[in-house]
Structures are given as C-alpha cells and as structure tokens.
Amino acid sequence: MTAEAGTGSAVGQVRDVWTGRAVLVSMAALLAEAMCVTVGVVLYGFTQEGPVGNVFLAAFVLPVALVLGALPGLVLTVTLVLPTLVLGRLAARWGGWQGRATGWCTAAAAPFAAAGAMLVYGACSALLTGSVGPSLVYLVCWPALTVAVVPAALLAAVAARGTGTRRTVRMTVTVASGGLLAALAMGVLGVGALATGLLPAYEPPKLDRARLVGVWRDGSGGTLELRADGTAAARGLSRPGDHCGGVGSWALDRFTADERLEVEVDGDCRGQWFMGGTEKRPTLYYFLGDPDEWHRHVLTRQGGRS
Predict the structure, then answer these.
(1) What proportion of the chain, given as a percentage, has pLDDT over 90?
(2) CA 180 to CA 120: how far, in whole Å?
(3) Exposed / middle / buried, residue 112 (Cβ in 10 Å: 0-12, 13-18, 19+)
(4) Backbone angle region of 99, left / alpha / beta, with phi > 0 → left and psi within -120 to 50 → alpha
(5) Region of residue 197 (phi > 0: left; psi between -120 and 50: alpha; otherwise: beta)
(6) What pLDDT does residue 147 have?
(7) Which of 69-83, 160-174, 243-257 has the highest mean pLDDT?
(8) pLDDT interval class at 305 (50, 70, 90)
(9) Rounded to an integer, what distance in angstroms lies between the CA atom of residue 42 and that of residue 33?
(10) Which of 86, 127, 136, 215 qualifies as a cystine partner to 303, CB 3.0-4.6 A?
(11) Which long-range contacts (CB under 8 A, 24 or more apart) does 115-123 make?
(12) What is the pLDDT of residues 207-235, one digit of tens each?
C-alpha cells in the first residue's frame, strides 16, 4: 500500500510538471536566453575577422525570428527543460530532500537530461542527413545545453507550482521582457566598450608594399608572387570549379578603408584581394562567390622578397 502510494505520488509529481504554465514560462526563459546570447555573439563578432552582419537589418528580422523560434522553443521545452524538471523532482523525492534542495536537484539533473536530448537530436539528424556528425559538435552542444536548461527549468518549476492564468501570463511576460531588457543593456554596454576601446574591435593589418612583396601560398599548391617592381605571378589558385594562373601587375589601393589589393594577372585571377589575419600573421584572401557567404581563398606569406 505504501509502495503504491509512493508510486502514485511520484507519478503525480511528474504529471504536474507537464502543464501549460511550465511550458509557457520555459519558452519565455529560453527566448530571454536566446536574445542575450545573440547580442553576445554579435558583439564578439566585432572582435573577430569576418562579417558581423547589419545591425539595423537585424532589428527588422528579429520579430520574424521570434515567431519562427516558437517551434524550436517548444521542442527544447518538451525534450529538454521538462525532462530536467522531472528528473530533479524524482531525485529530490527519492533522496528525501525537500524545499530548497529541490532546486539543487534540478540543476544536478541538467547534464543527464542534456545528454539524453543530445542523443535524441543526434538520432534525428542522422536519420535526416544520413550522417552522425563530428563528435566535437556533441562535446560543445552538451555543456551549452546544460547551461541553458538550468534557469529555464528552475523558472518552469516555479510556474508549475502556481495557479491561475493571470499569474502565468504575468510571469511569462516578466521573464521575456526581463530577457529583452538584459539583451538591450548588454548591447548598450557592448557598443560603449567598442567605442571606447575597452572591447577591441577587429582591424585588418595595415601592410605596406615592403611587407606585401614575396610569395603567398594557399597550402594547396597555389601561389601568388608579388614582386617589388609591381609585377605579379599567380599559379594554381582556386576558383569555383577551376584554377587560375598567369602574370600581370599588382597595386595597393589606399583609397579604401581596408586598403584592398588590386591584382591583375592573365587568366581569371584578376580582382580585389583583402588583407586579413593579424599583424604577426597577415593573410591575403579573395572571395569565392558571394562575399556575404564568407567563402574565402586564403593565402599566407611565405618565402622571401623578389
């Protein structure tokens, strides 16, 4: 009789987790986290070589992304957040912990729920794509999901214990708006840090002609030789579906903000090259296709001057 009562109580606790209140608040928490992470990624992008996107365009895209993100948020809630909450409640009950200890049990259950979710996501991806994917992806996503699920699960636990539609709506709005305000604050502080230099923005190295002269290699047998007399020779450089090579001239265009390199050689190698990398390890690159896709052919300086 006691065992049946204990089992029934445990089932009741599990059933109480799967409520609309917990789902709504969990989705709001995941949304808040996503907004903060997005701002952080954008700010980090300003410190790294590569495109950072149009911030003003993001303001128009964001509302659409929020609507489209409702389905992924629901999937994460059902497959990750609520299972974490269930495991935490069962662990607290079986361990005889009550009150505040339930929150610690929920946090401790997060890695296990994240591991189970990763197995489900990996299996679905394998069925759809026919490939399991690199193990590094799972090693990175597992701790990321673990960190993301803890606050969402704790807030969902509070919502699951509550009653009333008005209280649920108020809590959902509070969590989502709090995330929005936190993201805005991060953005303002980040822009201020970039403007004052506290957060150093990426700048390509400023190479003069002396540092450009020499042989640049792409690591696949292709070379670009820039000579001191202004002539250039390309051999085996990649182009979409083909290679190019030839001889011609080169010049440094100092009228552009990034000091592009104008290279004109025979064949299909003529065009604009860009400076990248760092001062200690500069690179030259050109785009393969649409620059927004950031498909580049990169060369590093090797060999002596001519």
Answers:
(1) 12
(2) 30
(3) middle
(4) left
(5) left
(6) 92
(7) 69-83
(8) very low
(9) 14
(10) 215
(11) 115/142, 116/83, 117/76, 117/79, 117/80, 117/83, 117/145, 118/142, 118/145, 120/79, 121/79
(12) 888 888 889 888 778 888 888 888 888 88
Predicted pLDDT at 42 = 84
| Strand segments (E) across 107-211 | none
Report which DSSP code applies to 292: G
Residue bearing tokens 């399991």: 132
Please name the residues in contact with 102: beta carbons below 8 A apart, sequence gap of 6 or more: 88, 89, 92, 157
Tallying the residues shown for the chain, one arrives at 306
Residue 171 amino acid letter: M
Q: What is the dihedral of CA 104, 106, 109, 114, to 10 degrees?
A: -130
Amino acid at 1: M
Query: Nearest CA to 246 among 220, 269, 218, 215?
Result: 269
- CA angle 89/94/95 to nearest 5° reads 95
**pLDDT: which is higher, 212 or 268:** 212
Say if CB 181 and CB 33 are below 8 A apart.
no
Evaluate whether 179 touches 35 at the Cβ level (below 8 Å).
Answer: yes
The answer to whether residue 272 scores a pLDDT higher than 70 is yes
For the stretch 128-155, pLDDT in tens is: 888 777 888 888 889 999 999 999 999 8
Q: Report the predicted TM-score, pTM, of the whole model to 2 decimal places.
A: 0.73
Question: Would you give the DSSP letter of residue 79?
Answer: I
Of 241, 249, 243, 188, the C-alpha closest to 221 is 243
